[in-house]
Structure formats: C-alpha cells, structure tokens
Amino acid sequence: MSLLTPNPGLIFWMLVVFLLVVFILAKFAWKPIIKGLKDRENEIQGALDLAERTRAEMIQLKSDNEKLIAEANAIRDQILRDAKDAADRTIHESKDKAVIEAQKIMENAREAIRNEQELAVSKIRKEVATLSLEIAEKVLKRELKDKEAQETLIAELASSARLN
Amino acid sequence: MYTHLRRFFTIALVASACVFNVPATADEPVQHEAEKAVQDINEKEHKIEHKLEESEAKFDIGEMIMHHIADSHEWEMTHGVVIPLPVILYSADRGIEVFSSSNFHNDHHEYNGYHLVHGDSEQVVPVDESRKIYDFSITKNVASMLLSAVILILVFTSIAGFYKNSKGKAPKGFQSAMEVIILFIRDDVVKPNVGPKYEKYLPYLLTLFFFILVNNILGLLPGSANLTGNIAVTLTLAVLTFIIVHLNANGNYYKHLVRPTGVPVPLLLIMIPVEIVGVFMKPFSLMVRLFANITAGHIILLSLFGLIFIFQSFMIAPVISLFALFLNFIEIMVAFIQAFIFTLLSSMYIGSAIEEHSHADHGH
Question: Which residues form a coiled coil (chain A) (predicted)?
C-alpha cells in the first residue's frame, strides 16, 4: 500500500517546485500573456467600434448627400422653370410687340400709299385735265381751220351722242 | 497476482472437501479415506503452486507494474540504462547527508549506515533502527517534476516574449497553439466559474492546468516517471487549492457552513457535520480523482505490455500492441481531461467560496 501513502519528501519538493513555477510563470509568463491578450481584445473591440461608428457616419453622410442632391435638383428645376418662363414671356412680349409694330407699320404704309395714291390721282387728274384741255385746244385749233371738217365733227359728235 | 487466485482455489477445494467430510464422521474408514484424499489433493495443489511460483519468479507482472508506478531513487530509462539520482537525508544526529544513489549498488544495498529497501516502492532506512531520518532525495518523480518545471518556464516565458515583441501583430505558430488553450482556460473554465474577480486566481489556475497536463503527458512517455499518478503530488495540489479557497472565502461561505440557509433547526444536527465533511471531501476527491485516473491508466497499459511477457508469443504481441496503441490515445485524452477537470473543479470551489450574494436555497 505504499502507493497510497504520500511520501513527505516528495510533498516537500512538490510544494517548493510547484510554488516556484507558479510565481515564476505568474510574473514572467502569465502577466505579459494575459496583458497581451487583453490589449489585443481591446484593440479588436476598438477597431470594431470604430468601424461601426464609421459606418454610421457614412450612412449619415450618404443621407446628407442625398438630401443635398435633392435640394440641388429642386433648385435647378426651379431655375430652369423660371428661365423657361422668362424666355416664354420675353418671346411672347416681343411677338406681341412685333405684331403691333408690324400693324402700325402696315397702317402707316397704307396711309402713305393712300396719300400718295390720292396725290397721284389728283395729280393725274390735273394732268389729264390740262392734257385734255391742251388736246382739245389743239384739236379745236386744227378742226376749226376748215369749215367742212368742223361740220363733220359736229355731226359725228352729234351721232355718237345720240347713240349713247 | 496468480498466486492469490491459486491460493483461493486451494482453500475453496479444501473447504469443500471438509464440508463433504462432515456427514461422514460417524463412519471411521470412510473418514480415513476422505482424509487421505484431502491430503492427496493438498499435496497436488502444493506442487502446482510451487511450480507456478517457480515460473512466476521469472516474470512477476505485479512487481513489474508496481516498479513502474512507484517512485525510485534512480531513473531507469530502460533495462540497464540507469541514471543515479542524489539521495538527500536529514537526521537529527548527522544533519544533512547527500550522496549518489549508485552507492547502493552492492550486494546488501547498503551504504554509510543506510539500507535501500525494495518493497512496493523503494525506501531508504537506517541500519540502526533507533535513528529517525527524513528522506528529501531527488527521486525519479522529483527529477521529472523539475524537468516539467523547466519545460513550463521555458515554453511560457518564450510565449510571453512573443506577446511583448510582436505587439499588435497576429499570433502565429506555437504562440497561437498555446493561446487557444490559454483562452479556453480563461474564458470557459475560470471566468464563468470564479466570477468577476477571476483575474486574481488566473495565474494559479493556468499554472495548475499546464503543470498537470505537462506531467500527465510526460508520464506517458516510455521510461518516464508517474508524477501525477503519485498521491503525494495530487495531495499537494489539492491542499493548495483547499488553502486558496479557504484563505479567500468570504463570510457567506463560512456562515453557510454553520448555518445553511433554509434548513430547519433539527436538521442542522445532521447538516452541519455533512457540510463540514463536504469541505474536506472536495480536496480529497480532487486528490483521489487525479491520482486514480493516471495510475489506473498506467496500470492498464503496463498490464497489456505484461501480457506479452506472460504469453511469450509473437502471435499475441501485435494484437496487444494495437490495443496498447489505442489505449495510449485514450490516455492522451485522459491527460487533457484530468488537467481540465482539476482546474475546473478548483475554479468552481474558489468561485463558490468568494461568491458575493448567498443564494437563498440551492438545494443542499
């Protein structure tokens, strides 16, 4: 039964060696190892937290950007609409103005044409009158040179007057 | 081992013969004949026993196993290759004496007034029996323990170097192999069982785990010592855990011992002794569990190898070798499991002693 009776010498050495191993390992091995493990865990946790934060920031930025783009789009649309309106208005106005102007010009032209016409007609009338007077004078002068010719003429005139 | 069996059968035979004899006492000649028959049987049994003892003298498996399991004053690597170890003795009259165990290699195993006794295990006893000596020899187990201590310190200080030198880098090689085990012990064994103040006990529990593990595995190597299967070693480890538990235990723990909550007063008469026995049963179970598991494993393996020498047949050797190989794998598993269980139970005992709140009733 020596198997079951602990040997005091072995207990002594076991205590000495085991406690020494515990102290040496605690000081020179477990302390740096556990510290290293903890540091790394903190680092990883920190990196994960940072990534999470960055992600949130990215999402925030993205939504901000989208908002900005939407605003810019709205403003652009507004500007475009305004510009189009302004252009339309200008075109419309100028068209109207041009039409009025044209009408005025036409009116003036018509007026001028009428005036000219009247003038020309009155001139022509006067001319025609003088011309016919001269012609009549000349004709009369020539016709009245001989008697016979005067008589035929009168007859002629009388006959034509009759016919009318 | 065989002798005992034979003796038992002989006694049984004789006893049965005697029982047979009883009704016949009235009949003189019949009784005489019966006595003769019994004597005959006895003689024959004696002869068989004698022959068996003779053949066993060649190879005694029990002695072989005990020799391998027990401690020794010299380290026998294999038959004939022996490293003598220092014998350190203390006695009141002679003080400390140190000499090599090879001095005992003479006809009487005697040196300088000391006698090396080979029994179940070796023992140095003074020739003068009135003297009292204390044996602090560097035995095979102590030498193996020192070797494991050196291995542990070298391995883990070099790993600690990795952590210091390559800070902020990914672990690699041996460091990551050990890191898995360290993290397992920390996160799955110590942290959940000890509780929030686990860091104080972590160095002890980590050392405990790796010390038991390394010695379990060293013990499996051929020619090595059976350190964790030695009751003195497991006793020391269990007592250290016991001391740590009871030095750090808080008031709740001690109050719970003498006044278990939720127990009616008359039952306290039974409960208090049970609780106090329980306090000592815990380290006792720690001690016996490790010792018995490792020793049993060694005995099984040695018995298997012993079978080869008993049968002395080339036919049986490969079969037994295969079986022994299988058992060796199981023993490697046991090496890990026992180290794990010792650490787990130690951390559970520490955890239950330093627990802050006393829970009202948890059923014991």
Answer: 37-119
